[in-house]
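Follow-up to my post from last week.
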Amino acid sequence: MNTPPASPPETLFEHGYRLRFILRLCLAFAAGTAALYGIYYLVLSRPLTGDYAGVFHALRNLSVFLRPVIAVSVLVYVLLVCGAISALCVYGLHKVAGPLYRMERVMEEIRAGTPTRTVAFRDGDQIEPLARAFNGWIGKLRQDRRRWIAALEDAERICLQDEATCRGRMEQTLREIATEMSRYK
Amino acid sequence: MKTPTTPPGTKYRRKIHYINPRFQGGAALVISAMVVAGSVLFGALVYRDVGKALWEASMRGHFIVETPYEIVQDALLWHLAGLSATVSCLTVIVFLLLVKAVRIGVGHAIAAFRASENGDLSTPTEARGLAEFRRFGELVDSTRASALTRVATLREEAASLAACGLPAEAFRSRWEELKRNLREVAP
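User reply:
Got it. Predicted complex:
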């Protein structure tokens, strides 16, 4: 069997959505870098006072204590930026995760045979063509179902006539429906 | 003091944020890993260059600066700019790759739904890209397979009923049952 051809390009993501996400990411990095700069500035901007020996020892001590200062500052940066990124991924990507979750729920309902509504997305949700394609399929299936039931009901109406005509018409309708159903494979 | 009033007809609706650990968590983890790697590299470079600058300044013998910051300013700013630019660029690349992976996965699911609309319920979706979309593709296939099974059963029932030659009463009973079952297709 052949793989279904990939769909023609459609706007799955709003242009602004991608741009906003990238901008927020850059803002998070800028904030982290500013915090990092602030820490170094605080540590390194103490004035060098005293005589030559005092300044010499201050600089030597600073270069010795540089390792813990760098370790703490990098840790603060990582925590700050990773926290911001996690929040951004949760609050930014839920516009993709939400629609997927909704569609999974609707598909579960269809598999269970419970009455379902069409998939409706919230404002700002992305990947909307997926919902349209899904609703198109379910809509077509419902349309076919209505037509099959209407055909059966039409055949029943003929039963006001004699029994043989009625039975013949019903059997013919059943054959027609079976042929129509064979479209699904 | 006036209390703020809600305009009539305006109802407060809680905004729901869906969290998918595999999708959002995975993206956060990849970006965070890059931040950690970049930060460790930054720390190592700053330790080497700033430490060296301070040490050399102390060895020079005379000091024309008022704060240590003036000694290390250039190296520090360069490294900060490098960290910021590298991590930002890599993250933007990862985000664009993520968007591409979503587009590939969703594109296959859309193609599968369109094929289903034309009656093809058995060709696998084969959604590629992220694991989350492969799982979603399997769910789509399972839903299509379930619809196909239901339609195939009804088709067999309709065909067998048309050819069975049952007595009128039994025929009518199976006819009604078929109608009932038909109503369960995409309810």
